[in-house]
Amino acid sequence: MMRSGRTDRPIWVSHWPGLLAVLLLVVLVFGTLVAVILRADGGRGLGPSDWAAIRFTLWQAALSAGVSVVLAIPVARALARRSFPGRRLLVTLLGAPFILPIIVAVLGLIAVFGRNGIISAALGVMGGEPISIYGYHGVILAHVFFNLPLATRLILQGWLSIPAERFRLAASLGMGPRDIARTLERPMLREVIPGAFLVIFLICLTSFAVALALGGGPRATTVELAIYEAFKFDFDLGRAALLALIQFAMGAGAALIAFRVAIPGDMGAGLDRAVQRWDDTRAQRVMDVVAVTLASLFLLLPLTMVIVDGAPGLLTLPASVFQAAARSLMVAFGSALLTLALALPIAALVVQRGAWLVEGLGYLTIAASPLVVGTGLFLILFPFVKPSDLALPVTAVVNAAMSLPFTLRALVPALRQIEKDYGRLADGLGLHGLTRVRLLWLPRLRRPLGFALGLAAALSMGDLGVIAMFAAPDGVTLPLQLYRLMGAYRMDDAAAAAVLLLGLSLCLFWIFDRGGRVNADD
Amino acid sequence: MLTIENARVDMGDFTLSADLHVNRGERVAVLGPSGAGKSTLLAMIAGFQPLSDGVIRWQGTVMPNDPADRPISMVFQDNNLFPHLTVAQNVGLGLRPDLRLTAEDTSRVGAALARVGLGGKEGRKPAQLSGGQIARVALARVLLRDRPLLLLDEPFGALGPALRAEMLELVGELAAETKATFLMVSHNPEDARLMSDEVILVEGGTAHAPVPTPEIFANPPDALRDYLGG
Description:
The complex is a heterodimer.
Chain A: E1 2-3, E2 6-7, H1 16-39, H2 48-81, H3 87-95, H4 102-113, H5 118-125, H6 136-160, H7 164-172, H8 177-205, H9 209-214, H10 223-232, H11 237-260, H12 282-310, H13 319-353, H14 356-367, H15 370-381, H16 391-429, H17 433-444, H18 446-461, H19 466-470, H20 478-487, H21 491-517
Antiparallel strand pairs in A: 1-2
Helix pairs in contact in A: 1-11, 1-13, 1-15, 2-6, 2-8, 2-12, 3-6, 4-6, 4-12, 4-21, 6-8, 8-11, 10-11, 11-14, 11-15, 12-21, 13-16, 13-18, 13-20, 14-16, 15-16, 16-17, 16-18, 18-21, 20-21
Chain B: E1 2-11, E2 14-22, E3 27-31, H1 38-46, E4 53-58, E5 61-62, E6 72-75, H2 87-92, H3 103-115, H4 131-145, E7 149-153, H5 161-177, E8 181-185, H6 189-195, E9 198-203, E10 206-207, E11 211-212, H7 213-218, H8 222-228
Parallel strand pairs in B: 2-10, 3-8, 3-9, 6-7, 7-8
Antiparallel strand pairs in B: 1-2, 1-4, 4-5, 9-10, 9-11
InterPro entries (chain B): AAA+_ATPase, ABC_SmlMolc_Importer, ABC_transporter-like_ATP-bd, ABC_transporter-like_CS, P-loop_NTPase
GO molecular function, one term (chain B): ATP binding
Protein name (chain B): Thiamine import ATP-binding protein ThiQ
């Protein structure tokens, strides 16, 4: 009998690989933290610039989350109550920023909102001053770009969770739009919004690549960026370690708050229908059209600009870019394989031992920022090997750990269902251990595995984090190479490299995801 | 002989106790209102449901913990076949759970499939089969596993009446060929009348000791009468 998510049955597959994988993660997070604590230089305390970094990290995360959520409400409302051609595509696109390399999006935002971007050009025609994207507003703009889609999906889920019968009832009672908002929609929003806000706050709290590319200076440096700068420019390990400790404390604090708020899941199931409503007015129609149009433009224009600017230069890219791309592919495949090696045993453990493990690991990886783990690994490895020799493996390991929560969220429900449907049959026939993995789990997990591996590979392909700390000048990955081209103002090459990176990331996701679907037996 | 000695399972508010034995070679129907614990009784015997108390023996020996080591073949209500494996592989699991089949194993699989009327269907996937054919594949595997105790948990509930009668007849034949004892959960008292020697009535948290089928239908206890609606 299956009750409360776990079973009383004897063990089908050994716990040891799962426990080992969990142990590895705990060591990766807390072992590096210990290394950081031992090295942290508390003597001088926090300087003014450190306090500025802490303040900026907190308020930019709060503001980014607030703006994303507020803007997402009208978009989600429009998607919830309108069926229109392209709606499905738009909802799918709202899931895309997840696998979109941050640095590519930043380049696209520069092409739209930068000094030489189309908005500045339009202002110039009208006699206005060009605008700048660098600084705190650029950081927040980029965060909204990435998180508006997530917020929209989460809130849309809330809207679609209101049973259609309630809207029918409202219509039969003659309720107008205001009554419906009061009785149905606002209570739903009160439920959904705190969770959505918190998720985005947490994401923005550990933002590194955006701050690296668009922020910096006294007014727009996040703690993560400060760690990187202390490390890379000042080589002040004590200060980097102290900042890493602060980052961990902030993440852990936020994760503790998150523990008390219901965090909505977003696996994108069932968003492809709109609810029929009877309270339509002309004003609402106009609002919805405006919301959907503006949101689509905001999301699609930067990417279109990247492609338009970059596609022509693809063939004339310097060889170093292609070498970087090859390195990135290696990291992505390595990271995907490692994710699988960690996630499958952990999923097996979770299905047999209860779900709290998934939650726990999820929060663990939220509290642990990649840069903190990176700093710790550097401190541990520094005496023994040249860190740049290990830049790529370390990047793959950290990426795999960071994509684990998403992977588990895809694998665990699927594995639970497999065991529910076929567990007893397999038990009765004696499918134990690796035989069970080979003959039952792997064949039936193909779809979620393909999806999860695609996600892990794409996330790793586009990652610009730990690698920036470790890489030797001749050992960079494609996102880092792209960042360097931007830093050298070689914008044409940068745009072309961005198209390459975007294409490779999407391809990786598509290949794995597709591989899981082709010829899958249901 | 199957002996259930003072066995009990506790599942929250639900408990089921059983203290009974079934002689070798008997054909037993398990009847009772839905939710009474018919499937739980089979799960206890098969080793899927750990006992809170008591013991279950076969031929005087306590059953091992691992369901696969018990002298049992089981046919479930559904999900009897792995959809990603071929018919031959699904049957082959009855010989070797790791599916490393020898040439001799493969020919035995073919023979078992021929016996249940599915010769030549080795390469099909379950999705390409009808409900009746799927049940036959499951029975071909039972044949190869050749265990002395066969447990059937409403195996043909989804089939139409004619097909169900046909499958029950096949079960009867196979059980006779392998000299297996069988316990079959059914919703349908007619099934019990047709093919069982004895009936175990499950109701009120107890699995009662088996009673000869003609006797129990001639003089049904209150619980069965309520259930039959007589």
